[in-house]
Prior knowledge:
Helices cover 75% and strands 1% of the residues. The model is unreliable at 1-11 and 498-524 (pLDDT under 50). The chain has 21 helices and two strands. The chain has helices at 10-39, 44-51, 59-82, 84-103, 108-136, 142-170, 175-178, 180-194, 211-230, 240-262, 271-274, 276-305, 311-319, 321-331, 333-339, 341-358, 369-394, 399-436, 442-450, 455-486, 517-523; strands at 495-497, 511-514. α6 (142-170) packs antiparallel against α14, α12 packs antiparallel against α13 (311-319) and α12 packs parallel to α18 (399-436). The protein has 524 residues and is mostly helical. The two termini are 41 Å apart.
Amino acid sequence: MPAVREHPPRTTRAGTRRHRAVVAALMLAMGLAALDSTIVSTAVPQIVGDLGGFSVFSWLFSGYLLAVTVTLPVYGKLSDTFGRKPVLVAGAAVFLLGSLLCATAWNMAALIAFRVVQGLGGGALQGTVQTLAADLYPLRERPKIQAKLSTVWATSAIAGPALGGVLAAYADWRWIFLVNLPVGALALWLIVRHLHEPQRAAPARRPRIDWAGALAVFACGGVLLTALVQGGVAWDWLSAPSVALFGTGLCLVAVVVAVERRAAEPIIPGWVWRRRTIAAVNLALGALGLLMVAPTVFLPTYAQAVLGLAPVAAGFVLSVWTLSWPVSAALSQHVYRRIGFRNTAMLGIGTASLLLVAFPFLPYPGEPWQPALLMLLLGGALGLFQLPLIIGVQSTVGWAERGTTTASVLFCRQTGQTLGAALFGAVANGVLAARLGGAGDLDAVTRALDSGAPAGRLRHAVADAVHAVYLGAAGAAALAFLVLLFVAPRRFPVLKDSTDPTESVESVESVESVESVESTERTA
Length: 524
């Protein structure tokens, strides 16, 4: 008599449906944060035409970035203390409130303030979604969810500017923010209904929230990031505002250290930097944020000013790396299972440094496919670099430390991007001034080219400036390689994974014991 195949229990199928619903919610929540960083850019002319405030419109981006960056450590600690779900729900609610307020803004100052409110929620979205991705999947399954989240970022990078332009041209720029409401409401409903974190043992004492540390971190990060964002733009680097902000920031650093040393439950605990693995990943991904500025900020200008492309075509030259990055990230598991997390990341960043060095050697003015090909290869190299580090470092800590660890990694990457924008902006402007025999900046040169100024000398100056930036980015990549070589342990101390991937979403991964390093790397 042939064996009868039993159907899976209803609880298993229900758990699978619930799991898919939560993954969909995480992708929607991440999509909100990813889309918001790109959709506003193409609508700036319409926003300025309606509200005015051209001289300060850059704070639409800077204010949002500052709020996201400085809140990441706070949300990471809160998610470790109170769970991921309440932090994610609260962050999504704040983000949607900020979106609604942005749509009702009556002048540029109000819109900037409401963008900051959006950023306060965006920090919770970015950090908590990445942490939940590690909670919901065992180590061998995490590349799947991370590849999906990478695809969300890639899609947003391509679709965001186009969607923003369409809404601004054929509807109204306020719809750029209103479109967040139905998407966010759906994500919130799925999270509230389907995400059920497991009951954990009650702590021996009531958790203490380090409000003093949170305020000190927020103030310190806000002051230093403002100095980096506005330095060389709103005022000179050696001017009184810059000196005052950097001086205040350094004083606040001392305050943060003093407050956090005395706190029972610090927002930024010392172990984040005392553990070699976490410290190395923080530094390496900070360097990643630094080098990413070269293509994302300067390549579109290069494509328009040197190659003579239209804005849409220039955007395509940049966007090709968003196609190879998630594909490479998804396939990276086949590499790090054989050679380990650190060696895989070193392979990726080593290749990226060579590609960045190759950019200045492209023929002048060259063909558009040449930088596009480099960007396609660069995306593949960085996907091989970033994802193994994130998965690897999340796998070295238990549930109670994963939110803080993930937030520290994202915080360092965001800070690296801010530092890179300031540093490489100064490099580009310095090269332009040297080539043109006086003061100048990239935006002014681009406007001069658009107005029909003599092209030859200006185009060469822009090419030289961008080449210098790419060499600086190659230096950042080399720095990340050296950090992994000399600071990171040869094999990450991965914790034993006890999650059954067929379990329902309530069974979030637990960590029981540390396996031997050699065996974990073979099974990772």
